[in-house]
Amino acid sequence: MVVQRIVRLTELANRALIRPRILLSVNYLASLYRSTVAGCICAILVVSFGIADAALFFRGELHAFFVIAVGLTVIGFLVQVLLIGCFTRLHHTHGTSQEASLVVLAAMLYDIQAKVAADALLGTALMMIAISGLTLGIALFLCGAFNAGRYIRLMPFSMVAGFLAGSGLLIVTFSIAILHGESLSFGEIIQGDSKQAAWKILAGFAMGALLVLFSMLRWSEYTLPALIVGGVAAFHLVITYAPVEFNQLVQLDWTMARDSVAVRYQPMTSDLIGTVDWSAIASVSLQLPALIAVCIFANLIKISSLELMMRQRVDENRELRVAGYAGLVSGVFAVAPGFHGLANSSILAKLSANAKVSAVVTVAVTAALLVYAGDTLMFMPRFVFGAILLWVGFGMVQTSLLNNWGKVRFHESVVTALIALTVAVFGFIPGLAFGVVCGLVMFVAEYSQQETVRSMQSAVELHSNVDRDPDARAQLNAHGRSTWVVRLHSYLFFGSAARSVEIIMRHLDNHADNPIDMLVLDFTRVVGIDSTALRAFQRLALRAEADSIDIWAAGASPSVQTAFEKDGDGSIARFFETLDFALEAAEDRILCQHPLAPRVAVAHKGEGDVALAGLFWQHGVPRALPAGATLLEAGQAPQGLYWVVSGVLDAQVHTPHAEMRVRRMGSGALIGEISWYLQQTTSARVVVVEDASLLHLDNPTMAMLAADFPETSSILHEEIARVLSSRLLDNARQLRQLG
User: Fold this and answer.
1) Which residues pair with 488 in a beta bridge?
2) Chain centroid to CA 637: how far?
3) What is the DSSP letter of 116?
4) Which residues of 546-564 are buried (b: 16+ CB within 10 A; e: fewer)?
5) What is the distance, to the nearest Å, from the Cα of residue 271 to the centroid of all Cα atoms in its chain?
6) DSSP assignment of 276-303, as one string?
7) 3-state DSSP call for residue 319?
8) Neighbouring C-beta atoms of residue 698, cutoff 10 Å
9) pLDDT per residue as tens digits for the range 64-96
């Protein structure tokens, strides 16, 4: 029996071990199958987009090197697929060459042609591609290295969308030339001798419309490859039964090549470097900022879209660095640059394919296709690849402009459309300049409407943290409306500052019957100020001088205070470190201007005050502390109660920036009552500002009073409750005013 049980347990253990192995093997094979299928689909897209982008890339006289352009675009695709696919942290993500970068680079290469001799054209074009790739790679890497991704996201939406929509319009424009085989005007298209061009363009638009229709109605990871293969097959099927010779269509540029040629990669050799026309490169290098701006914006949009597609949090700065590495490699090998792609990545996501495995499969299948690509170029109909560019360009316009029309504010949609049209009609440099101007105008117009005045309150509503006796507080309440505190916030530039000054001046006009002689400007929440904003405050100072109003400032940062001292032209009379200090000085000024009457100046203490003073004088221990000494430390155990005979003390709390005063106490103040009542550690540090004399009731004395003198102890508790209630009411009132 024992032997049988051992055998049975052994069999169960083997099954338990074998099943997970089988499941792991099945899952691995399933993942490998999905990744292989995804890699094959991506390879078809790489070759298809490579051919289409090559036609976009080398237009005009550069079309003579079309087979080299195919090699540059396809290898550029593969560089992005491998590097981004292997190093990204996003699941199921590949990189691709991007029309956002190719369209700007294509425009630069087209401009070079008119400035370069024929024998220097290829070398100059390859050098321009290498410089663009290296520049873009460095820019993307630096943005990621210095965590600039979050700042770039702050660019106005209309500016970014306008660049992308303009790129889409340019792609649509370029696709017409690709469909025809060379640049063609609209007038030439409608002429009778251009019927072939019209038919080719109509065929391209028909297939482009089919792509758009399928993308709107029903789209899957197999749709685009199926439409591409179907378009090529339909072309050859029609030719088979049509009364026209295939060779005749080839000679009429219905296909991507007239002869059987081999696609090849052309490296930057020393001979080609010697033919580079550097002056031509320098003349078009002014468009590099546009290339960098468009690509960074487009890449961040792609990263954000992938983040939502994959439902995965992403570090955009790391992804920018990965794209920067890929750009540097593209520049070194002088191939088409790019970054994260949505088309290939969506296929991987749909199939749950492994990015690294599918990247290797994509490279292998694409390499196999390239072996025969030279012969197949002659059989590839031009309208298929022109239609791909039409679909891509329309998609960029639709996503950036049409889909957002009505969802964003009307003026933002108008600005987006104007930037897109400027890019399409005048080029990227004018479009970039126009976009920057529009962004600045929108910023000024919108930010100037932001309310930078948080509140305006008189010294009746806002008090300093200085304990005042009832007679002084009554005097301040009677005359406090001659002093007003204006609390500002945000960044002050000429628009917002002018609006703030207008609000303050209207307030002065509304209180003409109750003259104001003091304005305290609270800059605690102001993060900065520009020189033009200072002019607005100088206008306020002129108005204040005419009405004999003094202007003080509180809580200004060093940069704001320096700006006023250098360029403020004396608009601020005094600066205070905090609003509390400014309020204290303003209250002292009011009390000096309106001194207490002699009959009021005599202290009339209530019964509680007299009893409390008698209690401390009878049972308290005298203590004398010099200025600068510390009475209590924050976090200290309860020390009993202190009563201030004379002197000034401050209660301070620690903040990340400095020690903040929360209460200033003078003669007759009670200290330590909260910690003693709650039997908790002290919450504030108490320091001596002016030599102080105190009376101390320690914990044993307090216990003795409670046991032996209950009536006296009751008076003490009543007085403490009165003090705490008074402070609570005062704090609640100030909180209501601040709210």
Assistant:
1) 453
2) 47
3) S
4) eeebbbbbbbbeeebbebb
5) 46
6) --HHHHHHHGGGHHHHHHHHHHHHHHHH
7) helix
8) 16
9) 888 888 888 888 888 988 899 888 888 788 888
